[in-house]
Structures are given as C-alpha cells and as structure tokens.
Specification:
Largest sheet: 5 strands, mixed
Radius of gyration: 25 Å
Shape: globular
Strand content: 5-15%
Strand order of the largest sheet: 3-4-5-7-6
Number of helices: 29
Helix content: 55-70%
Bound molecules: zinc ion
Low-confidence stretches: none
Number of strands: 7
Distance between the termini: 72 Å
C-alpha cells in the first residue's frame, strides 16, 4: 500500500493527486515528513565543516520541503473542503506539528551555527537578500525559545503544543456553530423586502441543504449581510443578527469562551518567558509598528472623528421615524436603514448595481488590471481538476513563460470556513537544490460568495467585488514573488505590511475606466452607465463612520485583551463588554467580530494583537495609490515597474519601510488614508 502523499506528485505543476487522497493518509505522511525534516536538520547541524551561509542557512531554507508540501495541502483542505475525518486528523496533528516546530527551532547545534554566522554577518560577503534571510531565521529561532534555559524551553514547547490544540478547536467550534444555524424562510411574509438576488441565493442554499421548496439564510457573510440590509422583518433581522454575533458563545461542545480565555493565559505566559510584560508587546516587537503606543495612536486618529459622526445615526433615526418606527436603532437595524438612506440620498440601489457585477466579469477585470500593471496573463486550465468542481484553475504567464498556477475558489459551501483568504500550495523560490529549476508558486484565493441559481450568473455586490480584488492582490503578492530563498518569499512579510498589496489592489476596482470596461450588465452586456459610476463615487464616504467605528472597536478590543499583564483568569465576554463601554461604542453600531468567534485572533496567532494591521497597511495603500494619481494614469508604466519591483515581487527580502520608501521615494503619511475614509472632510448633512 503506497501513500499518495509521500509518492512523487507527477500531475501538472506538481499539484497533489487530489482524487486519491483520503484523510487517513495524513497522519502517516506527517510522521514520515517530520522524521525526514529532522534527519535533514541533524545532518546539516552535525557537519564537520565550519558553518557557511550555503551549508547552513541556504540548506536550512531548503530542508523540510516534503513536510511543507503535505502541510500546505492539509491546511488548504481543512479550510476549504473539510470533513469530520479531516477535522479529527487536524485535532490529532496540531500539537504534534507544534512540537515538531519547537524541536526544529530550538535545535541547539543548528542554532549555534546560525548564531555564529549572524555574529559575522558583516564579514562573510552576503548579498542583501542573504543577509535578510539570515536575520529572519535567527529571529525565528529566538522567538521560538532557542535562547531560553532548558526548563523554560520545555515549558515554552508545552505552551505551543497546547496553543495549537486550542486554536484548532476554536476554529472548528466556529464552523460548527455556522453550519448548525439556518434561518428557514417560509412564504412571502418571511421574504418581505428581499430583492431577487437575495432570494435566489437563499433558495440555492436551501437546495444545497436538501430543502426542496424554501429559502435558507446561513451565517455566511454573503447571506447574512444582504439579509440584514434588505429584510423588512425586524424580528427576523434580530434573530439573524443574534445568531451571527453569538457564534462560539453557546453552552456545550462548541463553546469558545473557555478556549479563548486559556489561549490568552498561555500567550501571556509565552510573552513573559521572552521577557515581555504582555503578549501585545511580544507580538508587536516584530512589526513595523513596534509598540502599542504606535498602534493606539493610529487607531485613535480614526476612532475619534468616526465616533463623532452622529449625523449618520441621526439620518437613520429620522428615516425610521418617517416609517412609523419608534425606539432606538439597534445593531440589526443599521444596515437596513443605511441602505434606505443611501437610496434616498444618492439614488443608489444595491439591487440595481449588482447586475453590472457578475462574478466572471469581475474576475476578468482583476486579471486585466494585473496584465496592464505587471504584464502577466491568466490562461484557464479547465482540464486540471483539483479538490472541488467549483474551483477554476489558471496558468499564470509572464513575458518569458509560466510563472505559477492560480486556483480560484469563489463560492460558499458548508465544508468551507467563512471569510475570504489567500493561501499557497507551494511558495516561489530558486533555492530548490535540484535540477528541476525554480519552484513556481501555486496560489489559491478563497471567497465565500453566494452562488447563483443553476444557469443564472453569480452577481456580486460592490463589497464582494472589492473582496475579490483584495484577495487577488494577496494572490499577486505570492505569484509575482521573485526571490531566491523561500523564507522571504511572497507574503512571508511582516504582518503589518502583508495587507498592503491586497488593499492597494482594491483601488483599481474603483477606477472609472476599469468599471467602464468590465462592469457590464449580465443580460445586455451594456457597460455600467456613467451616471451610476458617478453616484457610486459620490456615495463612497457614506456610512464610513459606521464602518470605521466597527473596525476600530474590534482592533482596540484585540489590543486591550492582548495588552493584559495580569494572569488572573479572564471572562472574555465581560472583558469585551467593559472595554466597549469604556471606549464608548455607540449601542446602535454593535460589533460583529466578537471575541468568542474572532478567528483572526484565536484560530491561529498571526493576527493576534494584529487586527490593527489593516489600518496600518491602509496608510501605505492610500499613500501608495496616490503615486499613480500624481502620475496622471492608474496604469502608469514607471510607477507600476517600481510597484512590481519593491512591493509585489520583493517578498521579505527588503526591510518593509525601506521597500516602501524605494517604491514611493519617501515614507507614507496618514492624510491620504483619512481622506479615503472621509474623515478629513467637513461632515455632510
Ligand atoms: Zn487581506
């Protein structure tokens, strides 16, 4: 019996043999791959040759590729197409993989060689990328506990194992609550106010769940947000909102309250082992922001003016009163009345906009922008089957031939986690050590769009289209990567830099010439009318106070909960409530990223004390896009060349502040971000 995970992958581009793979293949493959990796490391650490960059750092960068291949496949499947069997393997493997990581990054003999090289880094003839790779690896070891005393090291490893278990459980609990919930709409009364596209998506979701005649609202964002926006049934909106915002907060097996509390306690202990007073301090020490003070000061620049936007709520209340409603605006009312005010004030009707945003045309728009900026093309490879029939596969071609493979997985389904994300099956690098040549990146974009009915197109909202562009920007960061060493490839950058390529790419969606070319009516093919573009443009700051407050509240709570220096047990629900009260979050706004289901913070550690990174990167993207505005052309070739070289293809081979400076000719300023959010202008009444 051969394990297809361990056999050579001979399919196109070295893609995994998806059809042959079963959940039960993974444990044995992981064991073999971890053994393999440790063998490689032991061998290079035991070398009798003096350490050099080539025999130590480059060799370490090349080690463990089998484990990476298996892990990348595994985590992509558990995110996009999971099953109870895969989830069980995930729970079993999480602590073992964490233990493996600790063993690798505290390998004393290997660290001694890397440490010795770092001591001599100025005298061993390194090029800038090599120097950066050495620094990053050295820091990886230090942050994994390589410098701790043996007993502390053992405790650190135990913490990491337990955190891996807990973060796995946290994500699985959220998915359990999401797939458990369905709001079944029966008859016309339950559908009141819902435009055709929301009904179609709800009917499609019902069919997928075996409910023949009916409509179902799920907790997928592309279901819940339109439902809250259009449903005239206040009672159903409230039920949907409460279900959405109480994920992870139900007694029983999927309760995340204790899980989050234990994660927080262990993170604090981890930070203390490293000599930091709080987890936030530890996490921020390896970012562009560096300190809590820098993060808080940025968040407050938007929090204060956004919270002062009382005019938004006043307009909603006035409208609600004119509809004969009394009482306060509640969080489940906000989107509903905001949409009405938007229609009234800007003559903009979401249901009238969507026909111009069919998914296929928006995908073409993203590809076309990439072609015009970076000279690459996307060629459909419908002959390549992957893990689900809805996934489209594209070969990505540059001037000199293929540069990678792109998988586009756009639809929501019960086996996929919520949200939208980019990930990789393989990272770009040239340090492959074999004759096969450079490793080409295999990148996947996941979205959760509600699929159109059979035979009908999937129509996106402007928000959905922006998400598509956002993830595609991350995808380009992986696909355009042009570095030698895998450690600094593509999106392996500091976390407050990683949202720059994605958020920057969103700007091209708003360019009138892009819309004229690609936003075409799904039935007539007519381009979007100028008047509609103009109305979209005029409405761009509408409701930005609400959006900013909601986002900043989540980021401030994240920072506060990770800034705790007390190891007293925490009640996360009470902490969150008190913190929002202290901040003065308007009751009508409400947060939809509650701590009990905040996957950014607790399904892994990469955004813990890091939800601020979107705003940090927004300072860079708003300022960065102005380079094209100043050049007078959104596709200006000279600016695009600098953008490709210093931002999209340099990975982590250049310090991010330097990379931005090289692209822009100066450091970023926050004014363009504030302008973009409508927070610098006088309040419209
Ligand atoms: Zn992103």
């Amino acid at each position: 019996m051969t394990n297809p995970l361990l056999a050579p992958w001979t399919g196109p581009y070295g893609l995994p043999p998806f059809a042959d793979i079963r959940a039960e293949h993974f444990p044995a493959a992981f064991s073999a791959a971890m053994r393999d990796h440790l063998g490689e490391i032991d061998a290079l650490a035991a070398s009798s040759e003096a350490p050099t960059f080539a025999n130590t750092v480059a060799a370490f960068d090349r080690a463990g590729r089998l484990l990476e291949r298996v892990s990348a496949l595994f985590y992509n499947l558990t995110s996009s197409e999971t099953s109870p069997a895969l989830q069980a393997v995930q729970r079993e493997m999480a602590p073992l993989l964490a233990a493996h990581d600790s063993r690798v990054f505290t390998h004393a003999a290997l660290f001694a060689r890397i440490d010795a090289l770092r001591e001599r880094r100025d005298r061993i003839g390194l090029d800038p990328e090599q120097r950066r790779v050495l620094e990053r690896f050295h820091l990886d070891f230090v942050r994994a506990g390589a410098r701790l005393a043996p007993t502390e090291q053992a405790r650190h490893a135990a913490i990491m194992r337990r955190l891996a278990e807990l973060t796995t459980r946290f994500g699985q609990n959220v998915l359990a609550d999401e797939s458990e919930f369905r709001l079944v709409l029966e008859g016309e009364a339950d559908l009141a106010g819902l435009p055709a596209f929301v009904r179609a998506a709800a009917q499609q979701a019902a069919r997928e769940r075996g409910i023949a005649a009916g409509a179902v609202i799920t907790l997928s964002r592309s279901h819940i947000v339109p439902f809250l926006t259009f449903s005239e049934r206040r009672d159903l909106r409230e039920a949907a909102w409460r279900a959405w915002t109480s994920r992870g907060e139900h007694d029983g097996a999927s309760d995340n309250r204790g899980v989050a509390a234990e994660i927080l306690r262990l993170r604090l202990e981890q930070a203390r082992l490293h000599g930091y007073a709080s987890y936030a301090d530890f996490a921020l020490s390896d970012t562009m922001a560096r300190s809590q003070a820098a993060v808080t000061s940025l968040l407050e620049q938007v929090w204060r003016p956004a919270r002062a936007r009382d005019d938004e709520r006043a307009a909603l209340e006035a409208l609600a009163r004119s509809h004969g409603e009394s009482g306060e605006i509640e969080p489940w009312d906000w989107r509903f009345y905001a949409e009405k005010v938007r229609q009234e004030r800007y003559d903009l009707d979401e249901a009238a906009v969507k026909p111009y945003f069919p998914l296929e045309r928006m995908v073409d728009a993203a590809f076309d922008c990439a072609a015009r900026l970076f000279g690459i093309s996307f060629v459909a490879r419908d002959d390549i089957a992957v893990y689900h029939c809805d996934v489209r596969v594209y070969e990505v071609r540059g001037a000199a031939g293929p540069i990678g493979l792109f998988l586009h997985d756009n639809f929501a389904r019960p086996t996929k986690r919520s949200g939208a994300w980019m990930s990789s099956y393989r990272l770009q690098s040239r340090n492959t050590g074999d004759d096969a040549g450079p490793a080409l990146p295999i990148v996947v974009n996941n979205n959760n769009f509600a699929k159109g009915a059979p035979g009908a197109p999937t129509l996106l909202s402007v928000d959905d289209a922006r998400t598509l562009f956002h993830e595609f920007g991350h995808g380009l960061h992986g696909l355009l990567s042009n570095v030698t060493y895998e450690r600094v490839s593509g999106t392996s950058v500091l976390r407050d830099f990683v949202e720059l390529p994605s958020q920057l790419f969103e700007h091209w969606l708003e360019e009138p010439e892009v819309l004229k070319r690609h936003a075409r009516h799904h039935e007539t093919g007519e381009p979007i009318p100028d008047a509609l573009i103009e109305r979209l443009h005029r409405a761009r700051h509408f409701n930005q106070g609400y959006e900013t407050v909601r986002y900043a509240a989540s980021a401030l709570v994240d920072m506060a909960v990770h800034a705790r220096t007390s190891s007293e047990p925490i009640d996360v629900v009470a902490f969150e409530r008190a913190e929002l009260e202290r901040l003065g979050l308007p009751a009508a706004v409400g947060v939809n990223h509650r701590l009990v289901h905040f996957q950014h913070l607790f399904s892994g550690s990469s955004y813990a004390a890091g939800y601020y990174v979107y705003l940090w990167a927004e300072v860079l993207d708003a300022d960065g896009f102005d380079a094209f505005v100043e050049a007078g052309d959104p596709f200006d070739p000279a600016v695009a060349r600098r953008l490709a070289r210093f931002i999209y293809s340099s990975g982590n081979s250049i310090e991010p502040g330097e990379a931005y400076h090289a692209f822009r000719g100066r450091a970023a300023t926050p004014e363009p971000m504030l302008r973009q959010r409508g927070l610098l202008e006088p309040v419209e009444r």
